[in-house]
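User: Sequence for ABC transporter permease below. Tokens please.
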Amino acid sequence: MNTQRIFAIFEKDMKDFMKNTMTLFMPIVPIILAFFYSRIGGDEEMPIEMIYLVVGVIFSSVSAGGIMIMMAEENEKQTLRGLTLSPATIFDVLVGKSLVIVLLTIATMIISLAIMGMGPILDVKVIIGLIILFLFFLFLGIGIGLFVKTVGMTTAYLMPIMFLFGFTPMVQLLGLEEGSLVLKIFNYFPMIQLIDAYYLDTWTPIFIVAIWVIVAAIFMYVCFKRTMKDE
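Assistant: Structure tokens for ABC transporter permease:
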């Protein structure tokens, strides 16, 4: 790993990100949602599920969607292969691009939580859960971005990720019958586990989120091997 090459890639991708209106719009959506939801209940405290819904939108759109679009752009311009053939390794490329996403995710998260209230996340267990959940969405986005050929195609992949993993807290607001199969399945999804980590005095939800991260890392590795083989 070469830090100079990583920061050169970071600087280049940060400039590209700021020029792209599609990617620039991504951090704005959850911030608008945070502002809108914070006004719904008036002076009443926001439900935890709504706060985590915005957190899910940040992770799915900014973290997963952002890196997916950046990788798809390289595929579309056919520059990813050139980068891997340059002195920079694929690891340098991925770390450099991920740093852009880390910066944007943190900035969006801080602004959104400042609007909604940071109380629900000021807990060591929840903060650790947020960090490993970020890795889940990042790995998922990199994996998909490696085989998506055009930026336009990313929308088709981003929507299922947002509805399945980002909007999961909405399932608890749908009033489904307690013990239903749908609810049982979604209870193991990472966002629901993060909410459980807030409510429950146990580290089991964080362990389950860590398993999701391992699965996403394996998915990313398989996509990487397949992409290199196709090249």
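The mean pLDDT is 85.
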